[in-house]
Known about the structure:
By secondary structure, the chain is an all-alpha fold.
Amino acid sequence: MPRRTKAEAEATREALLDAAEDVFLEKGVSRTSLEHIARHAGMTRGAVYWHFKNKADLFHAMLDRVKMPLQQIIDDITAERQTLGPLDTLRLATLHAFEMLERPRSCRVHTILMHRCEFISDINPVELQNRLASECREVVRRCFQQAHDEGLLINEIAPNVATLMLHSMIGGLVHDWLRAPESFSLRESGGEAIDNLFHLVTRQA
């Protein structure tokens, strides 16, 4: 392969990831080969192997492009708006995550992970989904625990119960929306549902 500039190599890598998104979404992960991806990108398999060890490596690189850890979103909000309490911060972080998920690339990749990815040798979608869910749930739990310690939750709601309520609502909304994105706006309708849940668990002044 001829020597390329760093910018050219990065552009090639991004084009291969774009192609992988398209083909994974169309065929499903297990039925997609690196040859399919190379052809879709107008390249050779050699170009794919130049950037990725195998299909699993390419798949995880595709996921990394749309990573949006809830803790990072919360940290960003806290840095910008230091006077917000834990419940307002968590609510805004959830709405921001919904907004990010509605972006075309993020929607495509999460649809692949949730609905177009079957278990193969180096890719276990259930394990990936469980890890992401566990990380999200722990962040939510810490926020609700802080809110409880500050007397912001109603007495009837324990932090672990509030965590289960919000995490279940987020999971259900995202799952349903990814199956039929045209059926409702995740940011608007989903955001309204989230607002109502926070109203239910928050101690009113």
